[in-house]
Amino acid sequence: MLVVFALIFLSLVLFATEWLPIDVTAIVVMVLLMVLEPWTQITPQEGLSGFASPATITVLAMLILSTGVNRTGIVQLIGRKMADYAGTSRPKQLAATIGVTGPVSGFINNTPVVAILVPVVADLAHKGKTSPSKLLMPLSFASMLGGTLTVIGTSTNILASDIVAQLGRESPGLGLHAFGMFEFTKLGVIVFAVGAVYLMTVGVRLLPKRVPAEDDLVEEYALQEYLADVVVPADSSLIGQTVQEALGDDDLDIDVLQLIRYGEQFLEPLARKEIHENDTLRLRTNRETLERIMRSEGLTFVGGPRSESELHPGEEEPVMVEVVIPSGSFLVGESLASSTFRQRYDANVLAFRTRGKVVRDRFEDIDIRVGDTLLVQAPPDSLTRLVQNEDFIVAHEFDDVDYRTEKTPFAVAIIAGVVALPAFNVLPIVVSALGGVVAMILTGVLKPNELYKSVEWNVIFLLAGVIPLGVALQQTGAAALLGDAVASTATFLPAIGVLWVFYLATGLLTSVISNNASVVLMIPVAASAAQSIGANAFSFVLAVTFAASTAFMTPVGYQTNLFVYGPGGYTFSDFLRVGAPLQLLLSVVTVAGIAFFWGVGA
User: Fold this and answer.
1) Torsion of CA 122, 123, 125, 128, to 10 degrees
2) Whole-angstrom Cα distance, residue 191 to residue 148?
3) Considering 275, 306, 337, which residue would you say is the last residue of a domain?
4) Rounded to whole angstroms, how far apart are CA atoms 461 and 560?
5) Sequence-ordered list of residues with C-beta below 8 angstroms from that of 12, at least 6 positions apart, any chain
6) I want to staple 23 with a disulfide (CB 3.0 to 4.6 A). Which of 4, 338, 461, 599 is the partner?
7) Is 294 inside a domain boundary?
8) Residues in domain RCK C-terminal (predicted)?
9) Domain end residue (candidates: 349, 374, 394)
10) In the sheet where 373-377 sits, what is the strand order?
11) Is the pTM of the predicted complex or chain greater than 0.85?
12) Please, are residues 572 and 555 in contact by the beta-carbon 8 Å criterion?
């Protein structure tokens, strides 16, 4: 038990600090469990069982199915209908965002839903003269609330169902079984409704206006002091050199955004363009570097753009967008320098937003993390390539993205079948989901070469890595020990009070580590505690599942929060201010709902 507790402590520290990516942390813990088999009692077969777990396979299949739905453009179509309905009315914008995101997230994995809707909602906000900060956090929260409607709404529910089924097989006396497709939908509807009302009333007042309603990224990122126009005089040593030769040294930290010659503007690619006398170079750099280069090269400062319209006057297509880094992106763990991002996309990065902090210079060597946001300037064709690449979430809608709209009926029918077959006990969820994947290939909704690209492999490795930790908790008696410790609160708390303690504990744990890791750790403990006090174990594991699926208090508690962190311009404390009251409110509503529908007593 001491060894298992030590490994749990290690995993908590690594998850919280992000010293290693969370999927790597999970694999490290899995390997240590097997290496330390004499103490952890985890054989190689049990250590690798996470890869063969129905939960892991089901999540993998659901990620592929979600991609198939995305390829048809149906979610984007719903988003545009939402925008048409909402117009410039702020209450309608918020209601439409919540009303669309929640129900859709009940049937498609909520992470890709948010990735798709970020640009739709950001554009809706700007067109309606609303700060995107007022809509993007509700978008993320609504997706989490919607994920509680069905078992397949979130990977957390699928994993919890598998763990609960396993506990039920090992300890029949607990009365546990895998969750039915709609087993907790009645509670999910109540949770979603209460959360929606909170976001529409209290939440909207607590949300700050971090991003201006006007769609001007230069002003939003306060780049005015980092953009400058300089003229190349006749005696400058830069004349005759290419842009790369003259100013391409990484140590200078200078980006040449435009070259203006006799009124004609040249954008990327500029590296091989030769500099002539009287050329105007539009630079991104800090004032110290600018002054140094002006002195050494004899350049003349002639001001600089103060807004996006001045930076790119008369542009019909956007040439500047925010790009959010999702999990699974090739950029995660890389830096701009090591990833050759600029060269791949003929793009300049003007600013870098990471964990609420904006960096405007010297960001070449910063390690990129999930949720980081890049302010990118690039030609329209490069931006289109970024939109079509699943390594990025571009926070702006482009009209020229091709969707397989003719496949929409097939995709809708397949998802309906995947949901209906387990609901009527015809097939297990894992078989139904895998069958849906095959159906999408056969009907052309997805192409065979898109299967592997559709899977967020870091999520799969995270699940496979943490599942053996839950097994070790059970087999060493660590879960029973922790359960008895929590059960001791029953001496001064009623059973419903202990249930509420589990909800709060899981919510706090999920705020600092992965939601999937928290259910693996907490469900065995909750079941043991319920058994110790003679309570309904199903109610306890359900409380843990709901708490892990609704992590509102920090941006790192849930992936969807990271997706809106940058485009919303939020700070860490914004999530605490808006999310903590909602988490507390839902702790009461959820626990009361569980007690009403399923009872707390055995």
Assistant:
1) 180
2) 8
3) 306
4) 19
5) 512, 513
6) 461
7) yes
8) 215-299, 308-392
9) 394
10) 357-359, 348-354, 373-377, 320-324, 393-394
11) yes
12) yes
